[in-house]
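Hi everyone, sorry if this is the wrong subforum. Our group has a chain we'd like a structural model of before ordering constructs, and none of us has done structure prediction before. Sequence below.
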Amino acid sequence: MPASYLHGCETLEIQDGTRTIKTVKTAVIGLIGTAPIQTVDAAYKTTNKPVIITNDRDAAKYFGADTSGYTIPKALKGIFDQGAGLVFVINVFDPAVHVTGTTPDPSKVVASDIIGTTGADGVRKGLQAFKDCFSLFGYNAKILIAPGFSTLNSVKSELEVLAEKLKAISLIDAPIGTKYADAISGRGTSGTINFATSSDRSYLLYPHLKVYDSETDSNVLEPYSSRMAGIIAAKDVEKGYWYSPSNTNIKGIVGTEFDLTASLNDSTCEVNLLNEAGITTVFNAFGTGIRTWGNRSAVYPSESGINTFISSRRTADVIHESIEQATLPFMDQPLTNGAIDSICESVNSFLRTKKGQGAIIDGNCWFDKNLNANEELADGHGVFSYDFCQVPNTERVTYEAHVNTGYLSQLTGGDK
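Answer:
Right subforum, don't worry. Here is the predicted structure as tokens:
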């Protein structure tokens, strides 16, 4: 029955048909660490609260100048050196709490400060505060880093948990001073570093990088994760999230903590053996410059195949989350044939767009009656299926060289 009596004519606009599915943001870095906030204006001081930083001026305004012992200013410089531009930053350093005597002391920040808590009042601190970003800003961090702290097993583990929650990846640094052999053995049960993980959301990075420090007029070591995060974000913007961050020049560095043997055609060189163990490293050969080197997440080599590529993991995340978020207009509407067709076509239109961009090979969405029993439909539960195939990375090229003695017939001497 109509809502009210009408002796006449009216037009009702019905919002049926397909819905546009918007791609979630990927070039968003989540950085947590320490900043000398005692040196910034009171209006800009923050602790355990996400702040959006898009340039070096805002970085200095909110988190101060690059100061020895603090991780955030150095990390932001490393990120912006690569050309990236959007970072959610959480400072956990509190100059009123982390002190030695009366002097602010960032060395007093411990793993529990980084990991954080959710209080009885619902206020989140540390890494947990990244969970507030979607409600605050409309999107989540997709590249999580804790330079200087991800070397701790407890922080590494919490980064992995948060990455799963946010459909993100976590960049994990080896501890400073880790030798090549220790990085490899760190993947095993007897390893003494933080690399004993098989998370498909962890990107293991080794070694540290050398950066010129104007404050001391010397070269200092910095975690790899900051510049890798910048490279991933910049690659997302310039080419797309389906591109691997591997084989990209690292900007703003003067060297690496350790020299590693590197060769394209030597399976026993150190960089190849690191990659074989699921560790991303640096490639530095004659005339190449220092380049990122490694495509696989920490799930490799315990698993193999397309889903072990870090770019494939991120592509799948984008597709899953974009479709989930676009389902809101369909929620609580009548589950009719028209609604089923609209949902399927909305997803298929999105997948066609991703195929056209080159993000996937192909994909398809359908409604399988065998998965939708009448009892489930009567309970308001519809199951929609879709498939897709990411674009794999060209990680290995093999040439088959044949010696063709038939070409000798071209030898005729001077007789034409």
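For your construct planning: The mean pLDDT is 94. The chain has eleven helices and 15 strands.
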